[in-house]
Design goal:
This protein is of the alpha/beta class and 324 residues long. It is 49% helix and 13% strand. It contains 14 helices and 8 strands. The strands form 2 sheets. A 5-stranded mixed sheet has the order 1-5-3-4-2. Helix 7 packs across helix 8 and helix 8 packs across helix 10. The longest helix is centred in the C-terminal third of the chain and has 20 residues. The radius of gyration is 29 Å and the shape is elongated. The relative contact order is 0.07.
Length: 324
Amino acid sequence: MARKPLFKSLVEGADGSETPDQNTAPFPASRPMQKMKTSLIELQKSAIQDIKLDLIEDFEFHDRIDVEEDLDGLARSLDERGQEVPIKVRPIENGNRFQVIIGRRRCAAARRLGWVSIKGMIQDTSDLEALSAMITENSERRETSYIGRARLCHRVVQSGISQRDIAKAMGCSQPHISQMLRSYSLVGDDVILAVGDADGHGRKAWDIIGEAMEAMELKSHQVVSMVDRTLPSSSDRLAALVAEINALALNVPPSPALTTENAGAAQPGNPAARDLWKGVCRMKRSGKTVTIKGLKKAPEDMIDFLEERIPALIEEYRNIKGGS
């Protein structure tokens, strides 16, 4: 004989609603019993259950830019082994829909497989609680990138949450939050979306691009056009973009105010010195010595870039002259 689910009649009616029907005895109105009812309802919500995917939408704040990148492996795992870890959602619209807090990629993989529902837990959480839970989970699973976190910080700040609260939720210092916000503002959303998460690349690569954009007065659409979208990996797209930005920087002519003809006027007593790339670096010749110095605005790896290519330039010159 089938067993009737224990406590079911206490928290919902025969039709599954929370309001008892005429055939169900009313729940006792005493305070202890009402408290018990509330606890049972909360327990029911936090239990793992099937949630329809068409009722689940993204959390307003998330630290993954392209949820579809590298999704094949996860989809294959779900298809072969089933769902081993439930997602976590929070109710919105009076509980009629949900926002996914943990498991956004699992939802995407399940949708790709054509699943109708996914196993999950429903928990009422504030924005900060949800943010903290998501960041903690993704950090443990390594499903986050530097620029993804930087973009997340920007969106959270825009919503009115303080940097101090964000730092607490992310488990880092407030100066680190400020650094990520600077990286985001230097590059901009259009370029970030064109490149993607670029896992494995930290602040340095993004700041090279942002500082170069500022120094060369490049617009976002110009840099977006330089992104090689034929590369399937966002990490490869970022590396290729950094290389192209560096190459472009070396080919930028001196500012009109600092050409060979008027360099002496711009730098009194030093007519052999030329500022290149609008003051990012300075080249000086004295006899048979040429010195290139990176100034304040110079990207961190510019000198490394030059050092690596000088031997090739000398070899090119030797071939032109027919030397041995």
